[in-house]
Design brief:
- The protein is mainly alpha-helical.
- Among the domains are: 121 residues; 101 residues, Cytochrome Bc1 Complex, Chain D, domain 2 (Orthogonal Bundle).
- It contains 19 helices and no strands.
- Helix 1 runs antiparallel to helix 7, helix 7 packs antiparallel against helix 10 and helix 13 packs across helix 14.
- The longest helix has 48 residues.
- The chain is flat, with a radius of gyration of 31 Å.
- Bound molecules: heme C (6 copies).
- The site of one heme C has 23 residues, from helix 3 and helix 5.
- It holds the Pfam family Cytochrome_C7.
- Keywords: Heme, Iron, Membrane, Metal-binding, Signal, Transmembrane, Transmembrane helix.
- This is Cytochrome c, mono-and diheme variants.
- One of its GO terms (molecular function) is heme binding.
Amino acid sequence: MCSHYNRFKTYLLALVFGVSSLALSTQAYAQAPDAAQIEKGTAVFDANCKQCHAIDEVVVGPALRDATKRWPSEAAILNFIKYPQKTIEGGNAYAKGLYDKYKQFMPNHDFLKDDEIKAVIAYIKNPPAKVEEKKTDAAGAEGAAKEAAPADNGVITYVLAALVLVLFLVLVVLGLLVSVLTKYLNSNTEGLDEDDKEVISQTLGFDKFFGSVAFKAAVGFVFFIMIAKAGYDKVYSVGIHQGYAPRQPIAFSHKLHAGMYEINCNYCHTGVYKAKSASIPSVNICLNCHNSIKTESPEIKKLYSAVEKNRPIEWVRVHNLPDLAYFNHSQHTKVGGVECQTCHGNIQDMEVVQQHSSLTMGWCINCHRETVVKAEGNAYYDKLVAMHAKKSKEPMKVENIGGLECSKCHY
Ligand code: HEC
Ligand code: HEC
Ligand code: HEC
Ligand code: HEC
Ligand code: HEC
Ligand code: HEC
């Protein structure tokens, strides 16, 4: 009976480890070096090149499909991407021809590492099959699509972690079974054949040790912890973009405009005191000044070329709540009297806008629990304040006017 049990145990262990190594190899496959390189290239491209280039379409610069074939070597194209102006002025005839055609310098990319540029080149060599861009200015949809990718990865890791957890539990149960059975048989050795006796009385050698359930369980456990940690990190970072500071198509500086020149926020963000959305300024607002200021600057010329081509500047959206949440600017800035800086940080000191707050539900709720409603001078609140004062000595918080009700923030 015991030798059967022993064999059964071996089969189960083999099965368990077969499945775990399968799980491991799927993950390894998903990170094959080439695919990773292209994926990295896509990210670098989206962050640095997309505003001026598409694969199959002329944007500001040429369409990049087969661009690598137009250059003699990878080193040559890498050097051009890094120092275009130098290459053109250095007398490279092909580059000069490009410049004559597009009449604009591509900016230097010496801030990128060589392996980042190589990744972009890999992406250009292996572009998506079809034209990927739907030409809408719905930056929101684009952001959502970008978020979907990491979410998928998170789910895969989660499933793997769950799988390994189940395997680990199987191991623990097996371990317990073995010790219980061994104890039972030890106290009850009559009627067993030689084989079985040997199994029971075995001592712990190296072979036995590495084959032992305890050892395998320990390995399984460490493995499980590693996977679980990876899953945890992924899942908890999905959708949170605190610190996100994408490179923008024009080097617009809040530090210069809102800081040094003290232009009011709502001069550009015209909706911020009267609408749900603060809104991003159109080119026309910039041209109020830049029709005459810095007209020779290459950055400002991008404004003129946008007007000529009649396309909006494709600012990369920084803050983006998921669609399921409702947030209204005027309610907070005008009615609530909350300063921009409370939520957005010191924008007037930022060269490049960065997401200051987490924008999670917990963040909204915490502030609603702590913040006193600005009720003076607002007749709408007089009754509410009087009612609240009857019930409590505490000042009236956002919480008390329904700021924690699900339906206020979720449709
Ligand atoms: C501000 C606009 C702009 C940005 C950003 C930009 N480019 Fe360009 N790119 C151009 C222009 C314009 C040209 C045409 C050459 C010229 O006039 O300098 C060009 C040319 C090129 C060429 C040569 C194409 C050919 O047909 O041989 C490559 C390759 C290229 N860019 C890659 C990149 C990569 C990679 C990035 C991002 C790391 C990038 N560019 C970012 C504007 C831009
Ligand atoms: C001269 C026009 C101008 C002024 C003044 C200005 N902004 Fe902006 N703001 C922009 C432009 C253009 C963008 C989009 C490009 C960027 O993110 O840098 C932007 C982006 C932002 C964003 C990020 C939007 C997103 O994509 O999520 C915030 C937040 C912001 N501004 C807040 C402020 C605050 C607060 C002030 C006042 C202290 C201010 N801005 C003043 C033009 C302006
Ligand atoms: C109320 C006037 C005003 C508005 C509106 C305005 N700017 Fe400016 N901008 C300035 C001033 C002033 C400077 C600094 C000029 C200087 O350094 O001599 C400047 C400088 C710049 C520069 C730096 C140029 C360089 O090469 O040094 C950029 C880029 C720029 N603005 C982009 C924008 C954009 C994009 C918008 C629209 C979202 C905008 N500006 C709206 C007044 C304005
Ligand atoms: C109570 C917090 C809070 C305050 C105060 C606040 N914002 Fe925002 N802001 C947000 C949130 C949250 C988003 C993201 C909204 C979304 O994705 O729907 C946002 C987005 C923006 C955007 C991107 C465009 C948009 O409307 O989605 C701009 C620009 C902006 N804020 C400017 C401002 C300015 C200027 C002020 C001050 C006058 C201000 N904000 C005050 C929380 C705040
Ligand atoms: C810095 C503090 C702060 C943060 C952060 C904040 N709020 Fe508020 N919120 C307020 C204040 C103050 C009011 C009260 C305004 C008023 O008097 O009507 C308010 C009111 C509201 C209301 C109306 C509640 C009611 O019962 O009338 C909604 C909805 C709301 N906030 C949504 C959000 C969402 C969604 C977020 C997060 C994305 C958020 N808020 C983040 C301070 C904040
Ligand atoms: C003050 C505004 C506010 C209130 C009140 C609020 N939520 Fe949210 N909720 C948000 C915001 C903003 C998000 C999106 C940010 C995030 O995912 O963390 C969100 C996200 C969610 C999500 C999606 C979570 C995810 O990870 O995708 C669920 C589910 C949810 N809320 C349920 C509720 C329920 C149930 C209540 C009532 C008990 C409630 N919320 C009250 C602002 C609010």
